[in-house]
Amino acid sequence: MKLEKAKFKKVLEIGGGLIFLLLFWTLLFLIINKPVLPPPWEALETFFKTFTSLLLPHLLQSTFRVLVSLVVALFLGALSGLVIGRWSKIDDYASPLIYLTYPIPKIALLPVLMGIMGIGEASKIFLISLIIFFQIMVTTRDAVRGVNRQIVSSVVSLGASEKDLFQHVFIPASLPKIFTSLRISLGTAMAVLFLTETFATVRGIGYFILDASMRGRYQEVFAGIIAMSLLGLALFVAVDLLERKVCPWQYI
Amino acid sequence: MIKIKNLTVEYQTFNGKLTALDRVNLEVKKGESCAIIGPSGCGKTTLLYVLSGLVSHNAGNVLVNREPVKAKRKKTALILQDYGLLPWKNVWDNTVLGLSIRKFSPSLQKEKAAGILKRLGLYEFRNYYPGQLSGGMRQRVAIARALTLDPDLFLMDEPFSALDAITREELQGLILSLWQETPATILLVTHSIEEAVYLGQRIVVFSPGPGTITANINNPYFGDIMLKSKPEFYRLCNQVRSLLEGGKPHEIRKSKV
């Protein structure tokens, strides 16, 4: 009963946001009144009409790219964050390196990466992973650094080895922060995804949008944008659900 | 049980060297409960951490059960002011943590933890997370976790100072009755005079930092659950208070530096 109610509330919340967005879009359409901004109903019509025939293959390609990038970056970022955060001697050397390389606009490396790794999936996935890797690593490092010393002392006094400390203290302590960084990274990943897909490829939702806009088919542009935002929503919901599953103590 | 000889501990801080403990000598017999009291910053917590093996010392000898102190001594339990519980583990998993780290069999873990949680009135709350419990119950979980390992030495660092008065008295009573069931050696660091007099068979008074022992009193009234309602209790409290105040001028001088 309570669960049913909560589900209903969730639907209402998402629906409310959707209605607001559609109204805002309509308003803009009425004010601007140019073919570059089609009304939402036309875009939605194109979205549903072309979804299986046109959009879906592109969407699946993009989903694959963003998911693989997220998983790779999550694994490597969390792992190195845990190591750097735990041992300050490593941190002393790693941090300057991180602060030197973090601000580099890595998108500028895309042509270079394509020269090295080819124009296939590898260079795109590598670039997205590289960009969000830093966000996840820095957050995880700080989470590990911030673990309460009394907790560490208590667990050590129970006989914990370094492995036990990671298993029982550092990993669970940083999980909520890792999820936060994952959410932030998700937005970044989608933005970078779009960019990599406008470059030397004929597949992916980014290509689809760019291609449609070159040909002046703005309904298709917006159908693509809708698809991309739905992909983002689905991923955000998935991350939320995963966090609830993995970090139940956060929801008491 | 505990033999400390000329213990000196120095910390490196931003302002140079800080002497936390200066040539401390202390002996605690097996099964004795010793309360250490002193103003904040007198190094009493440092002493506890040295005994737990988590902080190394610069000079002197520290023996626990005739052996040089080391971290992870199996029979030493450490109980801290903010409980040291893991927020991501429920009461049950927090309680069995020591047993599971020490690779006890699951059936033995279950048996031990269930018995202790029942004894401390926590069994019904075994699926709760620490965040769902009151401070007093959290500290009881920490005590339960310590008890699972059958310690012969309890090191307690201001264990009840974050609790309200009623809960504090209740837990002090719990510690006393647990001690009466199985007398383990207790080293209790506190800044509460009443707590020191109620729980300390011996009361050790520290001077302000760098910590040195200024008094070492035997408490003939220790072990009396009803002690707090008796006039002797207040007499001893007053005695400890005046001993503590004896260290004051030193503190004033230090704060000017």
Instruction: Spell the H/E element sequence of chain B.
Output: EEEHEEEHHHEHEHEEHH
Largest interface: A-B, 22 and 30 residues
- The CATH superfamily of chain A is identified as MetI-like
CATH architecture of chain A: Orthogonal Bundle
Please tally the β strands of chain A and state the result.
Answer: 0
Global Rg of chain A: 22 Å
Strand sequence of the main sheet of chain B, in spatial order? 6-7-8-3-9-10
Mean pLDDT of chain A: 92
Give the fraction of residues assigned to helices of chain B. 25-40%
- The total count of helices of chain A amounts to 9
User: End-to-end distance of chain A, in Å?
Assistant: 19 Å
Overview of the molecule:
The complex is a heterodimer of chains A (252) and B (257). The mean pLDDT of chain A is 92. Helix content of chain A is 83%, strand content 0%. In chain A, α2 (40-86) runs antiparallel to α3 (88-101) and α2 runs parallel beside α9. Chain A is mainly alpha-helical. Chain A has helices spanning 2-32, 40-86, 88-101, 110-117, 121-145, 149-157, 162-197, 205-214, 218-246. Chain A has a single domain (43-251), classed as MetI-like fold (Orthogonal Bundle). Chain A has 9 helices and no strands. In chain B, α2 crosses α3 (106-119). Chain B has helices at residues 44-52, 91-101, 106-119, 135-147, 165-181, 193-199, 231-245, 248-256; strands at 2-13, 16-28, 33-37, 59-64, 67-68, 76-79, 153-157, 185-190, 202-206, 213-218. The longest helix of chain B has 17 residues, at 165-181. Chain B has 8 helices and 10 strands. Chain B starts with a strand and ends with a helix. Chain B has 257 residues and is of the alpha/beta class. Chain B has a 6-stranded mixed sheet with strand order 6-7-8-3-9-10, with helices on both faces. In chain B, strands 2-1-4-5 form a 4-stranded antiparallel sheet, covered by helices on one side. In chain B, β9 and β10 (213-218) form a beta hairpin.
